[in-house]
Amino acid sequence: MKTKINPSIFWDTDIKNIDLQKHSRYIVEKVVKWGNFNDWQELKKLYSKVKIISEIKQISTLSDKDKNFFHLIYNIPLNQLCTKKQLAKKLSPFYNRSAK
Predict the structure, then answer these.
(1) Are 69 and 56 in contact (CB under 8 A)?
(2) Which of 92, 72, 35 lies closest to 43, judged by CA?
(3) Is residue 63 part of a domain?
(4) Is residue 49 part of a domain?
(5) How many folded domains does the chain comprise?
(6) How many C-alpha atoms does 6 have within 13 Å on its Cβ side?
(7) Is residue 100 part of a domain?
(8) Residue numbers of the domain that contains 62
(9) What residues contact residue 22 under an 8 Å CB cut-off, 6+ apart?
(10) Residue 51 DSSP SS3
C-alpha cells in the first residue's frame, strides 16, 4: 500500500499486503478508529466522498459519538449507519428466532 496514511494504525496487518481497492472498508475503518486529521486528508485523496460514506455505513463498531459525527459531517441518516444488531441480522439465519 502506497499512501501517506500513518502505517501504525495498521498495526495488526502487514501493510505490504493491503490493496487500496480491495481493502477500502478496512482502510476507512482504521482511519475512523485510529486516524488523525492528516490521515483523514489522505483518505479523502484516495477515495471519493461517495465511497467513504458507503464504507462508513458498513462499519458495525461505530460508537454513538462516531455515528453522530458522521451524521452531521456527511449528512448520513442515523438509521443508515450499521449497528452490531443489524450486522447480526445480516449474518445469522438464527437471529430472528424467538426464545421459548
Answers:
(1) no
(2) 35
(3) yes
(4) yes
(5) 1
(6) 15
(7) no
(8) 7-91
(9) none
(10) helix
Within its chain, how far is the Cα of 17 from the centroid?
Answer: 19
pTM over 0.90: no
Q: What length is written for the chain?
A: 100
Helix 49-56 and helix 37-46, axial crossing angle in degrees, nearest 10: 110
Distance CA 78, CA 68 (A): 7
Q: How many CB atoms are closer than 10 A to CB 62?
A: 21
Classify residue 4 by its DSSP letter: S
pLDDT in tens, 5-57: 999 999 888 888 999 999 999 999 999 999 999 999 999 999 999 999 999 99
What pLDDT sits at residue 49?
95
Closest CA to 20 of 34, 4, 1: 1
Residue 98, in any domain of the structure: no
| Nearest-angstrom CA–CA distance, 42 and 39 | 5
Q: Which three cell numbers stand for residue 59?
A: 462499519
